UniProtKB/TrEMBL annotation:
It comes from Bordetella genomosp. 2. GO terms for biological process: fatty acid biosynthetic process. GO terms for molecular function: oxidoreductase activity, acting on the CH-OH group of donors, NAD or NADP as acceptor; quinone binding. NCBIfam families: PRK07231.1. The keyword Oxidoreductase applies. Pfam families: adh_short_C2. InterPro entries: KR_dom (IPR057326), NAD(P)-bd_dom_sf (IPR036291), Sc_DH/Rdtase_CS (IPR020904), SDR_fam (IPR002347). Keywords: Oxidoreductase. This is Dehydrogenase.
Length: 256
């Protein structure tokens, strides 16, 4: 088991990629605190997980909540070894229609929430004398611009840069920081697109592998980055995107 007896915190863990990561970590022997602000979804997710899993309902964008979830790991298991900042949100809109409230909402969760949880986790690792691993969640949109994804793309670009700065800041403490940049993954958001055959064809036309990714395929990367297999890797973003960045194609520029 790659994560035997490690203590892990995973945010946005009630569904999708976050839940897949929590399951993988549990399978690899970790004790996992699943965090999400959707209490009902969190309870449903916990029903299918083994005894080494615990849940905590919180909003990552609130500083007291970030500190509280980390303190819960310390209370339950005496410390923290791994933190996955997966919680995120998206508000798609054309630039001319994007509201300040929507822009701020995305930044609060994706950027501020990531900062708050990662900082609280790093402080706990230092406090406990643990050489831990922090995994942030970026996106291929950190590299590829999309007309209706300004807020989301900006937030994930920020996460990509935060990964580098955090890694440099924490390397002397024995804490590694890396990020994952998923491509088109079969989550709840993507399933709404998949119900439209033309929209799905458009998405698949941009993926060299010709299919959507599975949440568990991202989770496997999260296991690698948290494990000793990645002991000489820090400050990096690994893109699990089916080759989409290599293709370097998104969509034609709309005509005026």
């Amino acid at each position: 088991m790659k994560l035997h007896d490690k203590v892990a915190l995973v945010t946005g863990a009630a569904r999708g990629i976050g839940l897949a990561i929590a399951r993988r970590y549990l399978d690899e022997g970790a004790r996992v605190l699943l965090v999400d602000r959707d209490q009902a979804a969190l309870q449903a997710a916990m029903a299918g997980l083994p005894g080494q899993a615990r849940s905590f309902c919180a909003d990552v964008a609130a500083a007291p909540s970030a500190a509280a979830m980390v303190a819960e790991c310390e209370r339950l298991w005496g410390g923290l070894d791994i933190c996955v900042c997966n919680a995120g949100m998206i508000r798609a809109a054309d630039f001319l229609d994007l509201t300040l409230d929507d822009f701020k909402a995305v930044m609060d969760v994706n950027v501020c929430g990531t900062f708050l949880v990662a900082q609280a986790a790093a402080r706990a690792m230092v406090r406990g004398g643990r050489h831990g691993a922090i995994v942030l969640m970026s996106s291929m949109t950190a590299e590829l611009a999309m007309a209706d994804q300004l807020a989301y793309g900006a937030s994930k670009g920020a996460v990509r840069q935060m990964t580098k700065s955090m890694a440099l800041s924490l390397v002397a403490r024995g804490i590694r920081v890396n990020a994952i940049g998923p491509g088109s993954i079969e989550t709840d958001i993507m399933r709404t697109i998949a119900t439209d055959p033309q929209a799905l064809r458009t998405v698949l036309s941009r993926i060299p592998m010709g299919r959507l990714g599975e949440p568990d395929e991202v989770a496997k990367v999260a296991v690698f980055l948290a494990s000793d297999d990645a002991s000489y890797i820090t400050g990096q973003t690994i893109y699990a995107d089916g080759g989409r960045l290599a293709l370097n194609y998104t969509v034609s520029v709309p005509e005026a």
